Amino acid sequence: AQPRGDGLTPWPADVAARYRREGWWSGTTCWELLEDAVRHAPERIAVVDGPRRISYAAVEQRALGIAGGLRDHGLERGDRVVVQLPNRLAFVELTLALLRIGALPVMALPAHRDHEIGHLLALSGAVAYAGPRRHRSFDHVAMAGRLRADAPALRLLLCDEPADGAVDLEALAAVGRAADASDPAPAPGDVALLLLSGGTTGLPKLIPRTHDDYVYNARASAELCGFDASTVYLVALPASHNFPLACPGILGALAVGGRVVLTEDAAPAAALPLIEREHVTATALVPALLLRWLESPLRERADLGSLRLVQVGGARLAAEVARRVRLQLGATLQQVFGMAEGLLNYTRLDDPEEVLAETQGRPLCPGDELRIVDPDGRTVADGEEGELHVRGPYTLRGYYRAAEHNARAFTPDGYYRTGDVVRWHASGNLVVAGRAKDLINRGGEKISAEEIENLILGHAAVETCAAVAMPDEEVGERTCAYVVVRDGHTLDLPALVAFLRERRIASFKLPERLEVVRELPLTNVGKVDKQALRTAIRARLARER
Ligand code: J2J
Question: For the residues 66-93, what does the mean pLDDT come to?
């Protein structure tokens, strides 16, 4: 079968040939990763979700049941499916089923609402939406109904329990199916899935990841992290994030015959007893969640003796907190500086404590090409700070259907401009020093300043506005909205939040502070001086404390 080029910016032919020659691209699809593990140990438990324990053979049959059922409903290779399932068995099985068919999961977050899901449906032209019926008192089926009017391609609703007008995934899984090699399958060079960017643009971009590149991502990560058949991996972060999905995450654990334990609740009261009960050996956290685990009185009550590896990434981790992982959780810390766009940096398990605590690791692959540049695009001197540019065998060459943005987000020679300001540590690892991109990193969830500003500008009282990060002890950063109010109008935070809620957006994007000002400071080229605003709010918060 010919690779499906739709939405994919291909690597140049000579570069692709090198990636194959070096073995980084192995010509394997994500589904074949699972198949290998099934053949190896069919009876072993692959996935644990609450009381349910599903063997490798059963996961395969159940995923094939879903794949067959979806094919019967007309789903084909190359079709897009917006997946918004929480950390449940159905997430794993549906994702595998789509990977088997060659249909593309669009990895939405459970926190997304009409605003985000509507955009993802439109951008991807998805023919199906998969969600829970109700989750955290939100009715996802009703949302899908509302969005139908503006998503003409959408014709199939999938749910993991019976719901009006939706196909029941559990019923398809329960019927099951045997493997049939004659069923059409994707090619290794095809796009496997679409991940969400933690972008800086008005609306989020989608990241096409191919089977070849994602299989490398998961396998090489599993090897680096020492994953094997004895690994019990806890999915604490939302499973649709790249980190828990494939770094090494769910795919990495399944590829080596390990076990995946799911939880919808990562709070200490739920996660720590689960670690004890399931003998979890590894997990991935964002710094904010790690901090909650460390601070919890439950930590001393649960037996966490099985825990060997705690990966932390997604946002800056303070060295003082990093050092507490070994002392208070009895596990090895691994810092991960990754991005859904591709590049993964990991500290190695046997790195000295100082490197584990103070750096964000080094690239996964010898084929990763990193450049640290000044604002003119010139490489900085060794050890100096600059913006990180990267290309490599698992880093995208272009966002999905975003030609205009791609012209800015990539250099002419194919490097992705990460927007992260980094420097090399003497140990050969990277240190993330800051960022040049305009977003707010709230406990690892990325909020595009432009996206939230566009929404705020829709309020009748708002003349102009700017959204900036303000420091926060718990989640690292929160959103502060600076607003110039129109003459004769007033605005306070509750009114602004109520207005934004009516726009039906993910609630982590809501501003948590409002500063009404007479005017916004400008730089000498006439743009809003966000640096000045960040400094101002930081000073103000310090004074208030
Ligand atoms: C500081 N900033 C970091 C870190 C990511 C593994 C881990 C994380 C992500 C992720 C991921 C950071 N210290 N250790 O996909 O597979 C910030 C940077 C980066 C952006 C990417 C994975 N680790 N960051 O966070 O696509 O700014 O991926 O460019 O959500 O998070 O965000 P995202």
Answer: 98
pLDDT at 403 (0 to 100): 94
User: For residue 3, what pLDDT is reported?
Assistant: 44
Give the pTM.
0.97
| Res. 6 pLDDT band, cuts 50 70 90 | confident
Best mutation site among 337, 362, 387 for ligand 1, i.e. most ligand atoms within 8 A of its Cβ? 337
Pocket test for ligand 1, best of 283, 339, 442, 447 (most atoms within 8 A of CB): 339
Task: State residue 200's pLDDT score.
Answer: 85
Q: What is the ipTM of this complex?
A: 0.99
424 CA to middle of ligand 1, Å? 17
Query: Which two three-digit tokens encode residue 279?
Result: 């003998």
- Taking residues 392-396, what's their average pLDDT? 98
Distance of CA 362 to the CA centre of its chain: 20
pLDDT band at residue 187, thresholds of 50, 70 and 90?
very high
Give the tens place of pLDDT for each residue, 45-56: 999 999 999 999
Average confidence (pLDDT) over 497-523? 98
Using omega within 30 degrees of 0 as the cis cutoff, is the peptide bond preceding 186 cis? no
- Is ligand 1 within 6 A of the CB of residue 335? yes
Average pLDDT, the chain: 97
Does 337 sit in the ligand 1 pocket, CB within 6 Å? yes
Residue 72 burial (C-beta neighbours within 10 Å; 0-12, 13-18, 19+): exposed
Q: Is the distance from CB of 51 to CB of 163 less than 8 angstroms?
A: no
Say how far apart CA 404 and CA 398 lie, in whole Å. 10
Q: Judge whether 236 and 249 are in contact, CB under 8 Å.
A: no
Question: Nearest residue CA, atom 21 of ligand 1?
Answer: 339
Q: Report helix, strand or coil for 161.
A: coil
The residue nearest atom 28 of ligand 1, judged by CA position, is 339
- As a whole number of angstroms, the distance between CA 239 and CA 245 comes to 6
Bridge pairing between strands 362-363 and 369-373: unpaired
Are the C-beta atoms of 251 and 241 separated by less than 8 Å?
Answer: no
With a 6 Å cutoff on the Cβ, whether 243 touches ligand 1 is: yes
User: Which atom number of ligand 1 is nearest to the Cα of residue 195?
Assistant: 26
- Among protein residues, the one whose CA lies closest to atom 30 of ligand 1: 198
